[in-house]
Write a structure and sequence with these properties.
This is Iron-responsive element-binding protein 2. It is a single chain. By secondary structure, this protein is an alpha/beta fold. The protein has four domains: 80-373, 2-Layer Sandwich (Aconitase, domain 3), CATH 3.30.499.10; 379-605, Aconitase, domain 3 (2-Layer Sandwich); 670-689 and 739-895, Alpha-Beta Barrel (Aconitase, domain 4); 691-730, no CATH class. 33% of the residues lie in helices and 18% in strands. It contains 32 helices and 34 strands. The strands form eleven sheets. It has a seven-stranded mixed beta barrel with strand order 26-29-30-31-34-33-32. Strand 29 (774-777), helix 29 (790-798) and strand 30 (800-805) form a beta-alpha-beta unit. Helix 6 (85-104) packs across helix 32. The longest helix is centred in the first third of the chain and has 20 residues, at 85-104.
């Protein structure tokens, strides 16, 4: 509890046992014009103001948001932290390693605990092993989740080692709760189970807020909960009782007007808003929704929209609590007494949005989106922001074939655009061509929170099966919900058997296709694609479609709503105009068009009301709290220090603390550094640190093979993030990495002292043996995509001392600083090309004793060329962390 503003504490009307900080009294009219999201920041500042980590000056800066936005840094203490397995395991491994480091420096390892409540979801990510099964009846009325159980059994066996580590963590560390496997993915469980909307701690009420290691934490913004994804390193800082520091953001008010068209789903609205906000430019800003159109959106619509906000670059997308929120909470079984207290509290502190109140907050900028202007669309073929109306899909795909290779083009010669390749599959012959769908996945990340679109897919499948339509068997179809809730309502509504009949089997719960964990395509398909050099397609209801992400051989990937995924799977191609061309024919030969089987809004809403019920939320709660037999019977150590197994290929004590001493930190110059990689624009964290399968020819594969593992046992990079040896070898191992030294996509670089072309890891290893520091040259938006701490940790362990880029994704830049890599920027308008750099030069840079945010430094090269670069630090805290060699070393020194 804060100290400076204790005089603002009052009791809640009608409930003297509930207390709260009456922040509006502090601000008066200044408070009334603040955006709702800024009011939440202000409340947290008031409540945590102790004159040290949170100063009175910080509180007043937030209150003066109108004049201080974008000009000051402010700390923020979230109420809780959410970790998912991919990024949660390295965070907990770091905590375990920190205990070792503290002990080695003479400190007490028992002092190392998270100070902030932390929830860790175990099964956020899923590797598909089984994707097909067959039942005895035409419509699979005797459906049983054999596929789910098979995948869960394999997952549990494959990941037993890290599951034991998670269970040790839950017992060894205070304030750590582990959500058992088989429950659901991080942002889904966060939405359905962990979210409070209003937090209560020792009878003190305050707004729920959360940060976490998943970029889609923003999903809870749809419930009126302030939350966003940050890097694993920043998350660890919060877990250790430190605040997140952010520039007091601009808040873009997004006014929604009108109502959506009959066949437009939430995904269409999401993609429409994504494209609009990308065009406006909201990177590094808050977005807050208001207007008459907001009340027409259900909570599931809002959470779907909020979930996509990382794709248009905003920090978060906030929907203030209103009557729609309260009705949703009531329908999900929220305690009525708590609901009444929540409403009273939110109204008392003016955090409740009321349609009858004509006055709206003041925003940095207001944009308007008419929901009626949004049409059904998909997004692709290579980026989520490239939206295509389904009415234009056929012509747009043809244009993509003609365009030069780039963000949309494939540059297929005109005479080859009509080529087909025959394949034999399951005793029948089929033809593949450009545009053929080979992967169709209804996956969880953007859609499982929205029953309407999932039910629409099921109803579409039902009508398709009833008319005799089928999906070609060579198409790799899958259905991966985010939680058992989705399975429940698909099953109880009677649509699941029809999805199954079309090949959309439930394969398990968690990220799968979206992160490259697709089951392998058949040899017949792979050979045909290679033979015809075909641009085949994947269609998925996710939010990531970068080239090669789903499968190396699938070059075009489209994001679509779940019913459109089913529709394109039935069509077997994206090269189709749904308005004029049929999906197929029924048993009488009658042509069946998409309009014939598309479910109406009334049908969907009726099913939703009947089957999305309280029982689903109760079921999830029971699953979380009771666990399952495998998890409950799993044995784990009970020691203070984790007993590292030197033979383990999953969990290894990382080397971040190897050089840690109690000596004062001093800024070290970068002298005679070679360039490890010379990269272009939009290098993603996937390029830097892949999350999917481990290629058999990679350095990581060699490491695992040398330890007796077979390729089937490799698992994925995401699953092995607790092993720094694997992750370092996996750094820059993406086959789509384009290094200008090589001139084509490949995870290779040149070791300049010897002139050898090597895997990136092998070259870096040689440089380190020679004592040569490394830097990376890059273009715009370096580190875009998912927040991924290993995209900074990996380069650090490769010996990279600095990255010199034109611009950065903010989360990734924070990661670089947090691990101890200097983020340098070219001066505006300059880049490596304009400066005449080849990347073969040797670079040197010195830091002044008093390093300040945004200071200009002088870079020297071995050719005699000198030029200025910007040290892209935003505040003194970042400089302090960098000076100490990163957050982990800084905190370990503090504990010691």
């Amino acid at each position: 509890m804060g100290y400076t503003f204790e005089y603002l504490i009052e009791t809640l009307s009608g409930n003297p046992h509930k207390k709260f900080f009456n922040v509006p009294k502090l601000g008066g009219t200044k408070y009334d014009i603040l955006p709702y999201s800024i009011r939440v920041l202000l409340e947290a500042a008031v409540r945590n103001c102790d004159g040290f980590l949170m100063k009175k000056e910080d509180v007043m800066n937030i209150l003066d948001w109108k004049t201080k936005q974008s000009n000051v840094e402010v700390p923020f203490f979230p109420a809780r932290v959410v970790l998912q397995d991919f990024t949660g395991i390295p965070a907990m491994v770091d905590f375990a390693a920190m205990r070792e480091a503290v002990k080695s420096l003479g400190g007490d390892p028992k002092k190392v605990h998270p100070a902030c409540p932390t929830d860790l979801t175990v099964d956020h990510s899923l590797q598909i092993d089984f994707s097909k099964w067959y039942c005895s009846t035409d419509v699979c009325e005797d459906w049983k989740p054999e596929t789910v159980l098979k995948n869960q059994e394999v997952e549990f066996g494959r990941n037993r080692e890290r599951l034991q580590f998670f269970k040790w963590s839950s017992g060894a560390f205070k304030n750590v709760a582990v959500i058992p496997p088989g429950t659901g993915m991080a942002h889904q469980v966060n939405l359905e189970y962990l979210s409070r909307v209003v937090f209560e701690e020792k009878d003190l009420l305050f707004p729920d807020s959360v940060i976490g290691t998943d970029s889609h934490i923003t999903m809870v913004n749809g419930l009126g909960i302030l939350g966003w994804g940050v890097g694993g390193i920043e998350t660890e800082a919060v877990m250790l009782g430190l605040p997140v520091t952010l520039t007091l953001p601009e808040v873009v008010g997004c006014e929604l007007t009108g109502s959506s068209n009959a066949f437009v789903t939430s995904i269409d609205i999401v993609l429409g808003i994504t494209k609009h906000l990308r065009q406006v430019g909201v990177a590094g800003k808050f977005v807050e929704f208001f207007g008459s159109g907001v009340s027409q959106l259900s909570i599931v619509d809002r959470t779907t929209i909020a979930n996509m906000c990382p794709e248009y670059g905003a920090i978060l997308s906030f929907f203030p609590v209103d009557n729609v929120t309260l009705r949703h909470l009531e329908h999900t079984g929220f305690d009525k007494t708590k609901l009444e207290s929540m409403e009273k509290y939110l109204k008392a502190v003016k955090l409740f949005r009321n349609d009858e109140n004509s006055s709206e907050p003041e925003y940095s900028q207001v944009i308007q989106i008419n929901l009626n202007s949004i049409v059904a669309s998909v997004s692709g073929p290579k980026r989520p922001q490239d939206r295509v109306a389904i009415t234009d899909m056929k012509s747009d795909f043809q244009a993509c074939l003609n365009e030069k290779v780039g963000f949309k083009g494939f540059q297929v010669a005109a005479e080859k655009q009509s080529d087909t390749v025959s394949i034999h599959y399951d005793g029948s012959e089929y033809k593949l061509s450009h545009g053929s769908v080979v992967i169709a996945a209804v996956i969880s990340c953007t859609n499982n929170c929205n029953p309407s679109v999932m039910l629409a897919a099921g109803l579409l499948a039902k009508k398709a099966v009833e008319t005799g339509l089928r999906v070609k068997p060579y198409i790799r179809t899958s259905l991966s919900p985010g939680s058992g809730m989705v399975t429940h309502y698909l099953s109880s509504s009677g649509v699941l058997p029809y999805l199954s009949k079309l090949g959309f089997e439930i394969v398990g719960y968690g990220c799968s296709t979206c992160v490259g964990n697709t089951a392998p395509l058949s040899e017949a398909v792979l050979n045909a694609v290679k033979q015809g050099d075909l641009v085949t397609c994947g269609v998925l209801s996710g939010n990531k479609n970068f080239e090669g992400r789903l499968c190396d051989c699938v070059r075009a990937n489209y994001l679509a709503s779940p019913p459109l995924v089913v529709a394109y799977a039935i069509a077997g191609t994206v090269n189709i105009d749904f308005q004029t061309e049929p999906l197929g024919t029924d048993s009488t030969g009658k042509e069946i068009y998409l309009n014939d089987i598309w479910p109406s809004r009334e049908e969907v809403h009726q099913i939703e009301e009947e089957h999305v019920v309280l029982s689903m939320f109760k079921a999830l709660k029971e699953k979380v709290e009771l666990g399952n037999k495998r998890w409950n019977s799993l044995e784990a150590p009970e020691s203070v220090l984790f007993p590292w197994d030197v033979k383990s290929t999953y969990i290894r004590c990382p080397s971040f603390f190897d050089k840690l001493t109690k000596e004062p930190a001093v800024l070290q110059p970068i002298e005679n550094a070679h360039v490890l990689l010379y990269l272009g624009d939009s290098v993603t964290t996937d390029h830097i640190s892949p999350a999917g399968s481990i290629a058999r020819s990679s350095a990581a594969a060699k490491y695992l093979t040398n330890r007796g593992l077979t390729p089937r046992e490799f698992n994925s990079y995401g699953a092995r993030r607790g092993n720094d040896a694997v992750m370092t070898r996996g750094t820059f191992a993406n086959i789509k990495l384009f290094n200008k030294f090589i001139g084509k996509p490949a995870p290779k670089t040149i070791h300049f002292p010897s002139g050898q072309t090597l895997d990136v890891y092998e070259a870096a290893e040689l440089y380190q043996k020679e004592g040569i520091p490394l830097i990376i040259l890059a273009g715009k938006k370096y580190g875009s995509g998912n927040s991924r701490d290993w995209a900074a940790k990996g380069p650090y362990l490769l010996g990279v001392k600095a990255v010199l880029a034109e611009s950065y994704e903010k989360i990734h830049k924070d990661h670089l600083i947090g691990i101890g890599i200097a983020p340098l920027e070219f001066l505006p308008g300059e880049n490596a090309d304009s400066l005449g750099l080849s990347g073969r030069e040797v670079f040197s840079l010195s830091f002044p004793e008093e390093l300040s945010p945004g200071i200009t430094l002088n870079m020297k090269t071995s050719t005699g060329k000198e030029f200025s670069v910007i040290a892209s630090f935003e505040n003194d805290v970042e400089i302090t962390l960098y000076k100490h060699g990163g957050l982990l070393n800084f905190v370990a020194r503090k504990f010691s």
